[in-house]
């Protein structure tokens, strides 16, 4: 490009040309940049899917765990020795009235020593005291267990007189603020208070569940929420989430947090919280028009039934005399391409596999029936023929094949409220991914909202990248308030303000200082690394299965397989529904002529020593089981506890295990020979045997054959010869 | 909720079809073989194409369903054709560098943020405020507050190779 000064006309001609070239150059850069951003978006989306699929698979396992203990409940016969164990775990003794519990939870005998530098609370709770508490937690202080029990005790009294559904009106105050999942992330709650102000009667709040688990400050969040609840019972409204449940807490970290922070009184605090959770209201309705609930709805949701139930009795810890509250057994509805993740549940999948829902819909349409299952049922029952459920007739419209009783109806209403997720297609089907509640479609939204004269449903339960997301024609709003949930930079949190016009206004935020300065590229990279790390852990847990699957495609033992087979094998073993081909490069696979050396790949991928030390296949399941059996939260199992549980377990699995074998087993596991089994020994026993036995492709620790082999192996001490 | 592809294996024969299916699947949240029309830009671009916004709108016109979704059955043939014909070819790295050099009229080796902003926010398909902020956040060298475009291009290309 020659730059020179000429006469006016030629100069303008040059300038025009210059401008034109710059114009073209700018367009080109725009085009390139948009392509670049799209590729980043693709990566971000993949990363998100990884996290979500791992998270939901964990929840599914959780439900299976519930069902297992439900089974225990149903089949336990009150022989005197067994009675104590099971009653500890599950039984709420009706004879012990609330007043007796109040005595048990009494704080008065707890002394506050001079060495305590945390906040001192006085009661009745006032705004000053509550703000003092917030300040103290901001400075990372711990509230003394005396005040914890006192505060919780007061809040418990209040919760017991609250209705199942909070009814709120915006006419008294100008605007109401709604927050979604917090999951123990205190920084996010503090950020919301900073931006929006503390709760008061003029500044009412609705907190939509999942206050605890995963984050490190679940206890502090609960204390703050309950404190403000006491000060402004008409200004603070709490909805129960699926994580406000003591069994979920065993797995997802809240139990651990409380026991860690309160070593002496932790168990008592946990017991009190267990009761308080069951007394949390289930939903909030604003101006009779906006429904706020943690999970969602189903086609059978009926707010009148919900309003009438005795919510504290409808939970998993059912008494043996009543039908056991069980979640729909996921194995009954497992689609062909099973979602049972490598941590294959705690159950013998002995139930028949049912048909994949979309296939079923196709078949039904071909048969000329495009009605929902519920309509079919109505037709059938109105012609007074038998209403027997078939195993494969339970997806569309109907979500529940079990015989209906009033207790079961109530229980289902509650589970649907706390566990359901929206989907794009019409209809209503069981939520197989989570293992509880439903997937509900836009038609169900219209029907349920219409029936109750509501205009909007606000729910939480699912993490969203921007903190909130509309669906179902803007009739359903998902709101999530825990920012950076999966990883720093993974997502923003949001809260909603709403005035009498009931138009939601969103405020988004991201709580970490560092992530605000990260570029788009850096934050995606960071989240991606974290997701890949989590994924690698899953790969490690399935190393032998993966090798087996690869070898299946390599009958001649050449050591290489095609990429296509690699992807099939990965999905077949892990069942995460991830786009393997897209993830291939991030997992370090290099190919030559389209073929992959799988043995080398597994070696490279899984050579990380820290993974070797910490990963056991059924790690979180085992840990959860341990914590459940360890009813006094002492950190170790007595032989007796172990024996009783083992007997029940083997009865469930229909295997014969005699007392001597169990005794030998217990002795073998007690590595340090101190007469009890602590959690490390418990886990170690499973890990060692796992390395030594040859497992079939879909091993799970509740498979009877595996259990038998394991017992033989351990008691014969064969495994000790392997090391 | 993540299920593998429900299409039978006999349909996804070629590698091209498989690539399109994989990219599509990433954005297909409910696994019902549809994606929101707003995601189509990301999908098309992630398959290696460099369309302009206008060209994207043309694609959308061709495949969009009335409800604002795009279903795989209509998307697959359109996208296959695009990939086979190598439409919307990628921009080579040195062309991109030259483009920046053209904008750098005084041959300084860098651009000021407001210079770049002016260029990017003009034309038929200007950057939105958000796009501009994002680009500046990765392009601007924080200490000098300048855009060393050679480094910027290198970085973007390196990322692209992953």
From TrEMBL, chain A:
Its EC number is 3.1.3.16. GO terms for molecular function: calcium ion binding; Hsp90 protein binding; iron ion binding; manganese ion binding; protein serine/threonine phosphatase activity. Residues 386-398 have a biased composition (Acidic residues). Residues 366-410 are annotated as: Disordered. Pfam families: EF-hand_7 (PF13499), Metallophos (PF00149), PPP5 (PF08321). GO terms for biological process: detection of stimulus involved in sensory perception; negative regulation of MAPK cascade. CDD domains: EFh, IQCD. It catalyses: O-phospho-L-seryl-[protein] + H2O = L-seryl-[protein] + phosphate; O-phospho-L-threonyl-[protein] + H2O = L-threonyl-[protein] + phosphate. Residues 541-576, 617-652, 657-692 form the EF-hand domain. Keywords: Calcium, Hydrolase, Manganese, Metal-binding, Repeat. Its cofactor is Mn(2+). Belongs to the PPP phosphatase family. This is Serine/threonine-protein phosphatase with EF-hands. It comes from Gadus morhua.
Automatic annotation (TrEMBL), chain B:
Gene3D superfamilies: EF-hand (1.10.238.10). GO terms for molecular function: calcium ion binding. InterPro entries: EF-hand-dom_pair, EF_hand_dom. Transmembrane segments: none annotated. It comes from the Eukaryota. This is EF-hand domain-containing protein. It comes from Gadus morhua. Residues 15-50, 91-126 form the EF-hand domain.
């Amino acid at each position: 490009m020659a730059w020179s000064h000429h006469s006016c006309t030629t100069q303008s001609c040059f300038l025009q040309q210059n401008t034109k070239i710059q114009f073209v150059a700018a367009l080109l850069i725009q085009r390139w940049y948009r392509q670049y951003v799209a590729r980043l978006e693709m990566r971000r989306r993949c990363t998100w899917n990884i996290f979500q699929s791992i998270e939901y698979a964990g929840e599914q396992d959780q439900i299976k765990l519930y069902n297992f203990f439900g089974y225990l409940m149903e089949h336990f016969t009150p022989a005197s020795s067994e009675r104590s164990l099971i009653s500890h775990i599950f039984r709420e003794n009706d004879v012990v009235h609330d007043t007796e519990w109040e005595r048990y939870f009494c704080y008065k005998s707890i002394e506050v020593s001079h060495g305590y530098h945390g906040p001192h609370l006085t009661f009745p709770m006032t705004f000053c005291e509550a703000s003092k508490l917030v300040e103290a937690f901001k400075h990372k202080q711990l509230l003394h267990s005396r005040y914890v029990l006192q505060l919780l005790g007061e809040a418990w009294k209040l919760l017991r007189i609250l209705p199942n559904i909070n009814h709120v009106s915006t006419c008294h105050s100008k605007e109401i603020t709604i927050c979604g999942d917090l999951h123990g992330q205190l920084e996010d709650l503090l950020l919301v208070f900073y931006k929006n102000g503390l709760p008061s009667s003029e500044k009412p709040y609705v907190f939509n569940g999942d206050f605890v688990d995963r984050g490190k400050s679940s206890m502090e969040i609960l204390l703050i929420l309950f404190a403000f609840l006491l000060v402004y019972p008409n200004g603070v409204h709490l909805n129960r989430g699926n994580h406000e449940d003591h069994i979920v807490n065993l797995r997802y970290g809240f139990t651990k947090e409380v026991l860690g922070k309160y070593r002496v009184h932790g168990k008592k605090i946990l017991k009190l919280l267990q009761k308080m959770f069951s007394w949390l209201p289930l939903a909030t309705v604003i101006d009779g028009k906006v429904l706020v609930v943690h999970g969602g709805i189903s086609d059978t949701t009926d707010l009148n039934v919900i309003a009438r139930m005795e919510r504290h009795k409808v939970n998993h810890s059912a008494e043996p005399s009543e039908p056991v509250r069980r979640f729909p057994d996921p194995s009954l509805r497992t689609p062909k391409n099973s979602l049972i993740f490598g941590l294959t549940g705690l159950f013998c999948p002995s139930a028949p596999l049912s048909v994949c829902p979309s296939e079923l819909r196709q078949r039904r349409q071909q048969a000329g029936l495009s009605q929902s299952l519920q309509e079919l049922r109505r037709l059938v029952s109105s012609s007074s023929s038998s209403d027997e459920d078939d195993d494969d007739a339970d997806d569309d419209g109907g979500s529940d094949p079990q015989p209906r009783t009033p207790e079961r109806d109530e229980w289902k209403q509650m589970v649907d409220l706390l566990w359901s997720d929206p989907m794009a297609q019409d209809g209503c089907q069981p939520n197989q991914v989570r293992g509880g509640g439903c997937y509900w479609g836009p038609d169900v939204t219209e029907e349920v909202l219409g029936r109750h004269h509501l205009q909007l449903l606000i729910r939480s339960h699912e993490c969203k990248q921007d903190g909130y997301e509309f669906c179902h024609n803007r009739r359903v709003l998902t709101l999530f308030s825990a920012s950076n949930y999966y990883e720093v930079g993974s997502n923003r949190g949001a809260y909603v303000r709403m005035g009498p016009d009931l138009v939601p206004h969103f405020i988004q935020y991201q709580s970490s200082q560092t992530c605000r300065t990260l570029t788009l590229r850096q934050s995606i990279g960071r989240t991606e690394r974290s997701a890949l790390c989590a994924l690698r852990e899953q790969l490690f847990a399935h190393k032998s299965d993966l090798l087996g699957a690869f070898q299946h495609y390599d009958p001649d033992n050449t050591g290489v397989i095609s990429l296509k087979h690699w992807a099939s094998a990965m999905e077949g073993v892990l069942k995460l529904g991830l786009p393997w081909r897209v993830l291939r490069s991030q997992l370090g696979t290099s190919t030559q002529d389209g073929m992959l050396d799988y043995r080398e790949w597994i070696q490279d991928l899984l050579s990380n020593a820290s993974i070797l030390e910490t990963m056991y296949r059924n790690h979180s399941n085992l840990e959860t089981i341990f914590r459940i059996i360890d009813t006094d939260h002492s950190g170790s199992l007595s032989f007796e506890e172990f024996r009783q549980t083992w007997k029940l377990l083997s009865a469930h699995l229909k295997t014969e295990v005699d007392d001597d074998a169990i005794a030998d087993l217990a002795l073998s596991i007690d590595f340090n020979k101190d007469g009890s089994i602590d959690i490390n020994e418990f886990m170690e026993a499973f890990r060692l045997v796992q390395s030594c036995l040859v497992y079939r492709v879909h091993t799970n620790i509740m498979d009877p054959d595996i259990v038998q082999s394991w017992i033989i192996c351990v008691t014969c001490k064969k495994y000790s010869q392997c090391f | 909720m993540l299920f593998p592809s429900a299409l039978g294996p006999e349909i996804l024969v070629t590698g091209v079809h498989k690539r399109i299916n994989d990219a599509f699947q990433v954005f297909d949240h409910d696994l019902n073989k549809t994606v929101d029309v707003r995601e189509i830009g990301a999908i098309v671009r992630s398959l290696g194409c460099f369309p302009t916004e206008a060209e994207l709108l043309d694609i959308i016109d061709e495949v969009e369903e009335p409800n604002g979704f795009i279903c795989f059955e209509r998307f697959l043939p359109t996208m296959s054709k695009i990939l086979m014909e190598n439409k919307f070819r990628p921009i080579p790295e040195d062309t991109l560098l030259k483009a920046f050099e053209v904008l750098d009229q005084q041959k300084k080796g860098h651009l000021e943020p407001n210079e770049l902003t002016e260029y990017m926010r003009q034309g038929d398909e200007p950057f939105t405020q958000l796009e501009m902020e994002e680009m500046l956040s990765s392009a601007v060298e924080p200490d000098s507050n300048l855009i060393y475009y050679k480094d910027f291009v290198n970085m973007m290309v390196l990322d692209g190779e992953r």
